């Protein structure tokens, strides 16, 4: 083929998505550090004799050798993975905690959607995504907080972060109390469009803390404000994406745990016992 | 592009899982040159599978009657229930000869990226079966990959409060593999060495 060079190149990458191909192969969607998002085929990995398989599972940070033209046109040919070493396989920890697994899925899908063009380098998104998956696996912060922080900063890289410290319309500085997704975030009383939301001030404080990395404030937020913040972040994200994220409605925001908790105390907990426990 | 019937066949074959455009073309021309009796047999088999095979009303395995062979067998224990993703996993486990309990086929694994959540699988049906009280052990035999493990985590979370022992197939099944590709010996060992979760 004229102008087509097949060569080996090396990069580190995050495994965003894994799909079956044919009898025993997989197509791996990767967010690489230097070559942007790309899709590559991994041959034979579903055979139980493959030593590759475990390293090419979702949410892993891996070191790869890829065969293909790194600057090739999209669709010119599918790249193939010729070698892979695990740097940190975050998926192992994430699958043991269902809410964290669903949050990681939403991060991976967002990373894919924020890179609409294959092979367009985006170092900052790579670093953000790596940080998000690492934070989820570490378990230091609540998974929904890590997800919302990731979404806010990812939208920032895409150029559509919600305005939080100035009016989204006229730019008047200050923490304004109304929030409008179509207007682009917080709006002052003069610019407030009909239908703007009026979230609790603590919710907007939380959102600003997540956007700026103020984890002390974020960790201290209580659950009604966390929920309200998640709702606004999701609405803001969906407004800017052409189609909604499939994984976002499936993010477990603690309801599975609560159901389990309720079931554990079944049959009916005696109010007196609950009161005793609380003391 | 070919004309009419042959292109129609190529298009239909190309929609099958694992069949690319080149394979579809190869199969179509194979059919064209094959013995008419062979082709009729293939066509009949395709039609019959849709007419005769349905899902077992108890475990959602493939069945040719209301209930599958395992569910109809009175010698199979009702105390041990093995959860798998697909009917082909039932076949793989039956081949080991290690398991004498019953099955529940989920119809896939939880995969938020593909839009598959707990409500898209037969998890509600599983919990209803467990609610009858006859099951003492639930074996989670979902695939040893990320989606399979996450599904097992979710099921353990839902089922353990019901007071039922929950176990997972032992390691030895390589991560990232498909259960159906495990050989009988490895899969049999995984059954013997299952651990509580
Ligand atoms: Zn304004
Ligand atoms: Zn059955």
Automatic annotation (TrEMBL), chain A:
Keywords: DNA damage, DNA recombination, DNA repair. The keyword DNA repair applies. Residues 8-90 form the DNA replication/recombination mediator RecO N-terminal domain. SUPFAM superfamilies: ArfGap/RecO-like zinc finger, Nucleic acid-binding proteins. InterPro entries: ARFGAP/RecO (IPR037278), DNA_rep/recomb_RecO_N (IPR022572), NA-bd_OB-fold (IPR012340), RecO (IPR003717), RecO_C (IPR042242). The keyword NAD does not apply. It comes from the Bacteria. Pfam families: RecO_C, RecO_N. Transmembrane segments: none annotated. Residues 255-279 have a biased composition (Basic and acidic residues). Residues 250-279 are annotated as: Disordered. Involved in DNA repair and RecF pathway recombination. Belongs to the RecO family. This is DNA repair protein RecO.
UniProtKB/TrEMBL annotation, chain B:
Keywords: DNA damage, DNA recombination, DNA repair, Metal-binding, Zinc, Zinc-finger. A zinc finger (C4-type) spans 56-71. PROSITE patterns: RECR (PS01300), TOPRIM (PS50880). SUPFAM superfamilies: Recombination protein RecR (SSF111304). Residues 79-174 form the Toprim domain. It comes from the Bacteria. Coiled coil: none annotated. PANTHER family: RECOMBINATION PROTEIN RECR (PTHR30446). May play a role in DNA repair. It seems to be involved in an RecBC-independent recombinational process of DNA repair. It may act with RecF and RecO. Belongs to the RecR family. This is Recombination protein RecR. It comes from Plantactinospora mayteni. The gene is recR.
């Amino acid at each position: 083929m004229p102008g087509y060079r097949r060569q080996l190149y090396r990069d580190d990458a995050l495994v965003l998505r894994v799909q079956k191909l044919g009898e025993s192969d997989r197509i791996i969607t990767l967010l690489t550090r230097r070559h942007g998002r790309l899709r590559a085929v991994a041959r034979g990995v579903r055979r139980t004799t493959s030593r590759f398989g475990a390293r090419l599972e979702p949410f892993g940070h891996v070191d790869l050798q890829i065969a293909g033209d790194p600057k090739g046109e999209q669709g010119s040919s599918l790249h193939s993975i010729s070698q892979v070493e695990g740097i940190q396989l975050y998926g192992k920890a994430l699958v043991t905690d269902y809410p964290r697994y669903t949050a990681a899925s939403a991060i991976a899908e967002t990373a894919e959607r924020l890179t609409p063009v294959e092979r367009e380098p985006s170092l900052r998104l790579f670093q953000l995504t790596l940080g998000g998956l690492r934070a989820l696996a570490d378990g230091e912060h609540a998974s929904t907080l890590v997800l919302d922080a990731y979404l806010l900063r990812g939208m920032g890289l895409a150029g559509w972060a919600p305005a939080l410290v100035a009016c989204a319309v006229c730019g008047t500085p200050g923490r304004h109390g109304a929030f409008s997704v179509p207007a682009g975030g917080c709006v002052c009383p003069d610019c407030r469009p009909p239908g703007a939301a009026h979230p609790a001030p603590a919710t907007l404080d939380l959102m600003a803390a997540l956007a700026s990395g103020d984890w002390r404030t974020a960790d201290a937020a209580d659950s009604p404000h966390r929920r309200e913040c998640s709702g606004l972040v999701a609405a803001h994200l969906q407004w800017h994406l052409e189609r909604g994220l499939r994984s976002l409605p499936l993010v477990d925001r603690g309801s599975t745990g609560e159901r389990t908790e309720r079931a554990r105390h079944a049959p009916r907990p005696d109010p007196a016992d609950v009161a005793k426990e609380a003391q | 592009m070919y004309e009419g019937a042959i292109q129609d066949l190529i298009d239909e074959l190309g929609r099958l899982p694992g069949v690319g455009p080149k394979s579809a073309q190869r199969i179509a021309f194979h059919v064209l040159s094959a013995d008419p009796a062979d082709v009729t047999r293939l066509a009949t088999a395709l039609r019959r599978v849709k007419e005769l095979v349905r899902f077992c009303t108890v475990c959602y395995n493939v069945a040719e009657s209301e209930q599958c062979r395992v569910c109809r067998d009175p010698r199979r224990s009702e105390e041990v229930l093995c959860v798998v993703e697909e009917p082909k996993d039932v076949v793989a486990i039956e081949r080991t000869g290690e398991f004498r309990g019953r099955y529940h086929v989920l119809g896939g694994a939880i995969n938020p990226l593909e839009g598959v959540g707990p409500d898209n699988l037969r998890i509600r049906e599983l919990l209803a079966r467990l609610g009858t009280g006859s099951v003492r052990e639930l074996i989670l035999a979902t695939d040893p990959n990320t989606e399979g493990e996450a599904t097992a985590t979710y099921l353990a979370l839902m089922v353990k409060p019901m007071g039922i022992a929950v176990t997972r197939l032992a390691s030895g099944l390589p991560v990232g593999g498909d259960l159906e590709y495990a050989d009988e010996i490895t899969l049999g060992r995984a059954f013997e060495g299952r651990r509580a979760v």
